[in-house]
Write a structure and sequence with these properties.
- By secondary structure, this protein is an alpha+beta fold.
- The chain is built from one helix and four strands.
- It has one domain.
- Helices cover 15% and strands 41% of the residues.
- The chain starts with a helix and ends in a 9-residue tail after the last strand.
Length: 73
């Protein structure tokens, strides 16, 4: 197996999106707590979600994981 194939297989397992529990504060700010991850389906018509926490209130936001400049995993 070539290095290119190994890299492609490894990247396919990494989530493409992060899930956050977002709550509003009294100071018109929001608290964002990472609660999971998401992967696109092979056909591109949906996402698989893995939640470490299911919030009762607030909202869930999904954001693309940016591994570029200053991005975190």
């Amino acid at each position: 197996m070539s290095t290119k194939t190994n890299t492609k297989a490894r990247n396919a397992k990494m989530p493409t999106h992060a899930l956050y529990h977002v709550t509003d504060t009294k100071e018109d700010k929001s608290n964002w707590i990472r609660i999971g991850a998401a992967w696109p389906h092979k056909d591109g018509k949906g996402m698989s979600l893995q939640l470490d926490l299911l919030p009762r209130d607030g909202r869930i936001a999904m954001r693309v994981i940016d591994l570029g400049e200053g991005g975190q995993k």
